[in-house]
Task: structure prediction
Amino acid sequence: MALQKQPVSINFAQGMNQKADPWQLPIGQFQSLQNSVFDKAGRLTKRNGFNNITTVQTGNPGSVSTITDNTTLTTYNDNLIATGTNLYGYSADAQEWLNKGICQPVGVNVQSMVRSSTAQSSPDAATASNGLTCLVYLDSDGNNYYQISDSQTGNQVVARTLLPSSATQSRVAIVGNYFIITFHTTVPSLKYIAIPINNVTNPGSAQTISTNVQGSNFCYDISSTGQILYIAWMGTSNTLKVVYLTNALVLASPVSFTPSPSSIIYVATYADPVTGTVWVAYCPPAAGADVPRLIALNPNMNIIMAETNLASNLGDTPQIGLTASGQLCTAIVSQFDSSASGSASAYEVGVQTVKAPASGGGIGVHTNLGFLHSISLASKPFQFQGTIYYLVAYGLAGTSNQPSYFLMDTAFNIYARIAYSNGGGVFTTKVLPNVSLFNGQYSVPYQIADFLASVNKGTNLPAGTPTAAIYTQTGINLAFLTISSTGQHSSEIAEALHLTGGQLWEYDGVKPVEHGFHVWPEGVAATGSGSGGHLPADTYYYQFTYEWTDNQGMLHRSAPSIPVTVTTTGSVSSITFKVQNLCLTQKTTPNPVRIVGYRWSTTYPVYYQFTSVTSPTSNDPTTAMCTSITDTAASVLGNTILYTTGGVVENIAAPPSIDSALFNNRLWLIDAEDRNLLWFSKQVIENTPVEMSDLLTFYAAPTTGAQGSTGPMTAISAMDDKLIIFKKDAIYYVNGTGPDNTGSNSQYSDAIFITATVGCNNPNSIVLMPNGLMFQSDKGIWLLGRGLDTSYIGAQVEDLSLENTVLSAQAIPATNQVRFILDNSQTLMYDYFYNQWAVHTNIEAISSTLYNSAHTYLNSLGQIFQETPGTYLDGSIPVLMSLTTSWISIAGLQGYERFYAMNLLGTYFTPFTLNVSLAYNYNTGPLQSVIVTPSNQIPAWGGEANWGSGGGWGTNSYGDGNVFSARVFPQIQKCETFQVSIQEVYDSSYGVAAGEGLSLSGMLLLVGVKRGSRTQSARKSFG
Result:
């Protein structure tokens, strides 16, 4: 029986579909579709190419043509900006990047480890590769304890366990498959306990390292290479001893050295896991007695660098942290700062480097890199990609109102601030916490205030208790620090670019600095004088602020200091003040911070500025206390008024943050330390910078109603009159207007629940388009509509959106396209007019933005490419279209058909060929490939075999014009189903640059259908 031939017309109006079973994909939808856009219904058109716009380097100081350490692209004042380890601004005229300074993003995550009715201090911790953290600490009951917890959840696997009752100075490290806890006992002796990491409930018994230890004023330190633990301590008879413990728990014989100081009160050690060199530093007991010393040993405990001076004389309560790379050892030292009398943190941290000789016996070359005031060392240093980082503490416990911790490097650049105002204060103990590397994160324990209470100011106070004491009970947190060049989100508002990270960064066109001020002035001291001024007799109150004007003319002001009162009589005509300099800042020359004073009196009860506007007192971060500031003015009436007048909330620097958004003319942040907490700024008005305050926060509970726990916030974005709050598996929103600058009259709603069907944990994927917010979830790409309905808009590209992470998302101006850059060098393109998806290849981007209204992306080589209409090259790579149809079964699933021919119809633009492949019967491997050469292409004039045989000169003989059509005959006609793949090909032999090639309007299939189903062979038949 002859088959009736049927023409089957297929247009190209339905896009990709990866959600359907590929064997049952409807005819007209594509299994794959690459490098096409939908500018006309039913037609596939080639996308534009991307040109490299950073190809020239003119050699300006600090300029580069590529930026290999940056991963995030954004804009500021319509200028292209790249952030990462440094911030770079792009000069379009010179086509080069200008390095504007350090802007290293640091991810911060915090896990509570210990909270109890007692206080904990002197923490040390080690995190194993399985995520378990062993924590040791001193409790206020006088005992040392250890516990083992899940570092990600905080759940205790081994509850608080008492170390031997005489244990002091406990430390912990990882050696092989063990947690090794070391401690000193009052016998005296030095001991350890080994706890198998894979069997933590079965600890070993206490083993003795040595009984040759100093009884009083004992000090020691440990350092692990991961497989060997080195212990250095002060033995009897003023000997320095070093020993090592192997991963098989074999203890070597100790070696002894005689240091030149008569006694030692501090020991530090570092074992280089690469070279095996063991560095040991030690310090004498009192300021001026001697300088700290350093020796270097090889793995066999032989001296390779004899005792050498490490630094100049250190003051009281010294601390030393060591790290090394090759022959270069870097020591971070901390000491009491006798020049900082009256400051809130009378300590300082310095950096020393010592280079060991190539062979033993010689003295190394040492370099003093200076000191930074107002901080003490709070962790041992660690290295990441050649940079040395360490944690410092600001604020004396019981004296400072804002004890905090900061992550900084050896150049005193600040990267993160944690535990603002509720840290444990400066470290004065002999235990510096170790830093562990787990899953790309550096973990370090720190003290956190978990209970505050005023102290009776009576006469029976403990010795040394400050007269204005606040009792602070401390627990212990574990901070996880991720140092990378990714994860930085930007928001441009108030003529500045604000960047998230371990601190809120601000870029004003000159250089990135910390937003606001990390601390406000403390320790203000006043002295009256009877000469040199014109102050009338009165009662005065004084407050001081740090103030700074950015490159856009915005005035930034810190919180004011606590008022200082002075009552004058006729004999006092001037008052001189000492104010603490702001040392924790990147705001230095040529535009330093100013220290500004305000005066209130009973005669004029308003705080007016009394310090000079024309000759301000500049902050000097190299000294602890500023030069004297003297008030001699008879009247300050009419001067600038302190900004907090009238109850305006004081400005407090923002916390570390993981995402930002602009809503209600305010900057919003997700607090990285408490991811249930949002910070929002005062409402930004003209000529005013972003001003944050710890009084302007919004709490979104992690659990709401019947849907159960929804976890912490992961991303935020504004849509219309709502702030959308994303959690991993839920979405909320906030609407209304916020409080005024006094913190009153807030009309913000509570966090209103939208859905627990889906959430978002990837802020990079969120993009606003006409229909709402598109975002990536763990279920693919979804849409939150403007009516707050959710829909699975990305179902058709499910495979790609589930298997890959969205690195960047943009809605492209002058098109109907939204583009999602994936981490597999592909881009998902969604056309919201036609509701179709396609894939764009060759775009090896890691971040993108809109620059001059064009889609612009950064690749891993530091090159910038920008979409250029009318060009069809990605750099030098041609943009080539391709597609794979559905499995075409005109006779139905497992029917029987004959495939006679296929006709293609499109538009010819520039030379190309097509590779048409045919696959059969659900087997993906093609059984036939045909090269289609368009008849429109004209050989080069005179280039054909017989001159003139190509047809009429200047055209072709077929009259095709720009109409492209081709017919393909299959070699196999009888089949159950077939699939067509078309790949555009470009060859440089065409003699012209790769161009638009063609557009495709559809295909016509000539098919014959036989009734019934396809017969099956005996081996496939059963029953």
Summary: The CA atoms of residues 124 and 433 lie 5 Å apart.
